[in-house]
Design goal:
By secondary structure, the protein is an alpha+beta fold. The two termini are 32 Å apart. Helix 1 (11-23) packs across helix 2 (32-39) and helix 2 (32-39) packs antiparallel against helix 6. Helices cover 28% and strands 35% of the residues. The relative contact order is 0.18.
Length: 283
């Protein structure tokens, strides 16, 4: 490994990581790199062998107490040779002292456990098609996200995510190919969601709501921004039974699973309000 170095990614190099994620079948958003990189430019690492990029990992530090690992990829021809472990060690060192989260694919969960992670719950990706439901009529309870005071939105988000993420959120709700919407109950924020174009369709995430009814209204409104006959995907924490009922009502089918894992105790969040996870790469 004399010619193997690991360093921080440049912004254009994150596009390479996104392309690798696409090859892995992870269905990244078409504009995810722009939102991800600015969240923590120091938290993206690339491994180069003789100057050639062969692996990557992200270790985004939201606060001094919480970070999230994603984009852990080594090109197939360079796997099982120690290059990935060096990337992993770099990410773990960067987040030292944090409660670290990740979404581990089934075949790697035992390896993450060896590094001190424990499984909190399963997350399952569901897939549907927009041609199965008519476009909704206008709903007075649905509002554009920019009509909600940002501090109110941030407080709501922090009920459902383990750390404040103001920088990420300000960017994420401004999707180039998608929409960000809120649902109101008696003029009070009771949920919000984002839809974005991804490889092979559209991703819903987050989908946070106080109730099944609020989540259903939001999902219907978000899908009005998706073309007909398009595939759409939602990653759902399995303990949220109301979320499972929601995807069942759309005839969605499970296509992928992972486990949300942490190095310390499970964060205190309103998991029953998480009807769709924001991102498997950044949490």
């Amino acid at each position: 490994m004399a010619n193997y170095i690991i360093r921080n990614m440049t912004r254009p190099e994150l596009d390479t990581a996104i392309a690798w994620a696409k090859q892995e079948g992870w269905r990244p958003g078409l504009h995810d790199a722009d939102h991800y990189y600015q969240t923590d430019p120091n938290g993206f690492f690339i491994g180069l062998l003789d100057g050639e990029p062969i692996g990557c990992i992200s270790a985004v530090k939201y606060t001094d107490d919480f970070g999230f690992i994603g984009f852990y990829i080594v090109k197939p021809e360079w796997r099982n040779q120690g290059f990935g472990m060096r990337l992993w060690q770099t990410a773990m060192a960067y987040l030292q002292g944090c409660n670290i989260g990740l979404d581990g694919v089934v075949e790697q969960q035992h390896n993450y456990q060896k590094s001190g992670f424990h499984s909190a719950y399963r997350q399952v990706r569901y897939q549907g098609r927009t041609n199965s439901h008519a476009k909704p009529t206008a709903n007075p309870n649905i509002a554009a996200i920019n009509t909600i005071p940002f501090n109110e939105l941030l407080r709501y988000d922090n009920r459902h995510f383990p750390a404040p993420r103001a920088g990420f959120l300000k960017s994420w709700i401004k999707q180039q190919q998608g929409a960000a919407l809120a649902v109101l109950t008696e003029n009070k924020l009771s949920g919000y969601g984002v839809v974005r174009a991804c490889d092979g369709g559209y991703r819903i995430g987050p989908l946070f709501a106080d109730s099944h009814r609020d989540a259903a209204q939001l999902l219907s409104a978000l899908l009005s921004h998706v073309p007909d006959n398009a595939d759409f995907f939602i990653d759902i924490p399995e303990p949220n039974r109301e979320a499972l009922k929601l995807v069942a009502s759309y005839g969605m089918q499970p296509v992928f699973e992972a486990a949300r894992m942490y190095t310390q105790k499970n964060p205190t969040i309103t998991l029953q309000g998480v009807f769709g996870v924001t991102s498997l790469e950044l949490g």
